[in-house]
């Protein structure tokens, strides 16, 4: 059996709690490395460049794509997001576990280029709870929420493409389960 840490991809519909779970996990285990993506989305209040994302403009994003610096990238609800390649490869070759928090399209691209990656789907306890969380976060305008809920329907229908599903009822439980899957615990 191969016990080497490998690449883990966490995906799931917008508002399901991916960032919350990852933030909790990192609070408990700060040594777990999470890839920081580049995005053309504007920062939400409290988000900082280089922490949640590298916030770039369209031109800078184009350059990253043209120079082959992204392991994968996708357009999601009107913005582009991509995973810087080198940092991920460096961690993996150092034998450290790597976590990517990316959308469904990105997860599919990773699966195609790195078949050994493990794909984890974070599911909401129910559709109504997902709507409550996405709306309750209060960071998006109503039309952006609509767009993200449309994308969520597609994401939820793709759950069977993933190796494992975790239902986000308790942030602490899901973070623990994720760490176990990453063989950190
Ligand atoms: P995502 O990163 O998947 O878009 P967030 O982490 O921003 O989602 O979470 C969306 C909202 O749901 C936030 O307001 C967060 O506090 C809340 N939330 C996350 N996980 C839970 C949970 N297990 N129970 C209740 N609320 C949660
Ligand atoms: P948000 O704008 O809510 O931070 O993220 C929107 C969506 O983009 C989420 O599903 C998130 O997982 C995804 N995302 C974040 N970074 C990346 C990335 O580097 N690549 C891809 N494909 N999706 C990403």
How would you describe this structure to a colleague?
The protein has a 5-stranded parallel β-sheet, with helices on both faces. It has a 4-stranded mixed β-sheet with strand order 4-3-6-5. The model has no long low-confidence stretch (mean pLDDT 94). Helix 1 (18-28) packs across helix 7 (171-181). It starts with 6 loop residues before the first strand and ends with a helix. The chain contains 7 helices and 9 strands. The chain has helices at residues 18-28, 58-66, 85-93, 104-113, 127-137, 142-156, 171-181, and strands at residues 7-11, 33-34, 37-39, 53-55, 70-76, 79-84, 98-101, 118-123, 164-167. Strand 5 and strand 6 (79-84) form a beta hairpin. The chain has a single domain (7-181), classed as 3-Layer(aba) Sandwich (Rossmann fold). The protein has 185 residues and is an alpha/beta fold. Residues 14, 18, 37, 41, 72-74, 76, 81-83, 101-103, 105-106 line the site of guanosine-5'-monophosphate.
